[in-house]
Amino acid sequence: QIGRILDAYEKSPEREKTMILLWGDHGWHLGEKHHWRKFSLWEEATRSPFIWVVPGLTPKGALCNRPVDFLSVFPTLAEINGLPVPAHVEGTNILKLLKNPKAVWNTPALITFKEGNHAVKFRYIRYAKGGEELYDVFNDPYEWNNIISAKEHQHVVNELKKYLPKKEKTAVGKDAGTNSKD
């Protein structure tokens, strides 16, 4: 169905005035780390498509590999459309990445699964019950080696902790889940 929509977009006389924002559901574990589901804070289950096309702004065919999250949608759309962003809105405007996918970007993505369980991409995970994980996603892309206890990485942990929510939102549903055995 996406192809049909894109075909219609290409033929539309309004194409130069129409932006596309496409995002989808996150991943699914198919046995990785003994999981057969999507509810984890690891890369395999949190990766998802996130595609922006903004006429006159985004370079044609550009690909950005910087970590961003869905909290960026509202502030970025507001900026593009010249609208104010209310003070209570969380998220980081990614307009500079839309203009230049190779722009310097030091803001990690935040992923949350139920109350108190968060991951900060580049991949630091803190669970509601106190467990923590840290992965070197460049040298260990499947996140097999939890290096949280290595003292030489403590500065990375301290830096990524700054991006965790300062205030928790009350979760809907049952108690917060965890994948940590800590």
Question: Which structural traits does this protein have?
Answer:
6 strands; 19% helix; 182 residues; two-stranded antiparallel ribbon; alpha+beta
How would you describe this protein?
The chain contains 5 helices and 6 strands, in the order αβαβααββββα. With 182 residues, it is of the alpha+beta class. 19% of the residues lie in helices and 12% in strands. The model is unreliable at 174-178 (pLDDT under 50). The strands form 2 sheets. It has a 4-stranded antiparallel sheet with strand order 3-4-5-6, with helices on one face. Strands 1-2 form a two-stranded antiparallel sheet. The radius of gyration is 18 Å and the shape is globular.
**Coarse shape:** globular
- Tell me roughly what share of residues is in helical segments: 10-25%
Beta-strand percentage range: 5-15%
The side-by-side strand order for the widest beta sheet comes to: 3-4-5-6
How would you sum up the major sheet? 4 strands, antiparallel
Number of helices: 5
The radius of gyration is 18 Å
Structural class estimated from helices and strands: alpha+beta
- In whole angstroms, the N-to-C terminal distance is 44 Å
* Low-pLDDT ranges: 174-178
What's the total count of β strands? 6
What is the averaged pLDDT score?
86
What pattern of helices and strands is seen along the backbone? HEHEHHEEEEH
Ordered list of secondary-structure elements with their pairings:
Blueprint: H1 2-11, E1 20-23, H2 43-46, E2 50-53, H3 73-80, H4 95-99, E3 109-112, E4 118-121, E5 124-126, E6 132-134, H5 154-161
Antiparallel strand pairs: 1-2, 3-4, 4-5, 5-6
